[in-house]
């Protein structure tokens, strides 16, 4: 039986974006299933007492450079969003709504939203911009906006976030392979090794 990589992430995390650019190929090459687990990073920070590295001046400066290094290494486009930090509650609920109602289009939604935030630098806290991005990706933005208010969508995101915290997650991205936790997009080599074992 093939292994599974659970990918706990938040769209507002630049490291989640970088991990997302690598994990599909990594999992395909290893014959593993990639399971996307949307979570609300702000709630994880609150529950664990953690905070974004960008909130610490010296660490934030270093992080920007380090993210750029990895984007270059991976050969992927990346622009640090000028509207960071981003309140992702609505965006993460949107993803969960797609996951529940249009699972076959989840990858399309994920790609469109990550692209808008971390490549195009769009202000995704603006509902008009969000609707434009979704419409350009072929989604019914109005229908999705209605779905994010559904109790099932809210509960699913909350449950995934609470599960992440219970399992030891303190930041994004975090991957699990056979119960082993790997934090950070710079730990994908360990994920790859875990899939070989």
TrEMBL record:
The keyword Transferase applies. It comes from Ectopseudomonas guguanensis. GO terms for molecular function: 2-hydroxychromene-2-carboxylate isomerase activity; glutathione peroxidase activity; glutathione transferase activity. InterPro entries: DSBA-like_thioredoxin_dom, GST_Kappa/NadH, HCCAis_GSTk, NahD-like, Thioredoxin-like_sf. The keyword Isomerase applies. CDD domains: DsbA_HCCA_Iso. This is 2-hydroxychromene-2-carboxylate isomerase. The active site is at residue 13. One of its GO terms (biological process) is glutathione metabolic process. GO terms for cellular component: cytoplasm. Keywords: Isomerase, Transferase. PANTHER family: GLUTATHIONE S-TRANSFERASE KAPPA, GLUTATHIONE S-TRANSFERASE KAPPA 1.
């Amino acid at each position: 039986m093939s292994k599974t990589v659970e990918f706990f992430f938040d769209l507002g995390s630049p490291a989640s974006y970088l991990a997302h650019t690598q994990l599909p190929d990594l999992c395909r090459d290893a014959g593993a299933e990639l399971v996307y687990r949307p979570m609300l990073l702000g709630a994880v920070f609150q529950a664990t007492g953690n905070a974004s590295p960008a909130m610490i001046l010296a660490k934030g400066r270093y992080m920007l450079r380090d993210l750029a290094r990895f984007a270059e290494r991976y050969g992927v486009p990346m622009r640090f969003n000028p509207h960071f930090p981003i309140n992702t509650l609505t965006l993460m609920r949107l993803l969960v709504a797609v996951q529940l109602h249009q699972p076959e289009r989840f990858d399309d939604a994920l790609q469109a939203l990550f692209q808008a935030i971390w490549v195009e630098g769009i202000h995704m806290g603006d509902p008009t911009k969000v609707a434009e991005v979704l419409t350009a990706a072929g989604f019914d933005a109005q229908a999705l906006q209605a779905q994010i208010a559904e109790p099932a969508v809210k509960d699913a995101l909350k449950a995934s976030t609470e599960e992440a915290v219970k399992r030891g997650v303190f930041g994004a991205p975090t991957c699990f392979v056979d119960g082993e936790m790997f934090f950070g997009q710079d730990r994908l080599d360990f994920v790859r090794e875990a899939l070989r074992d």
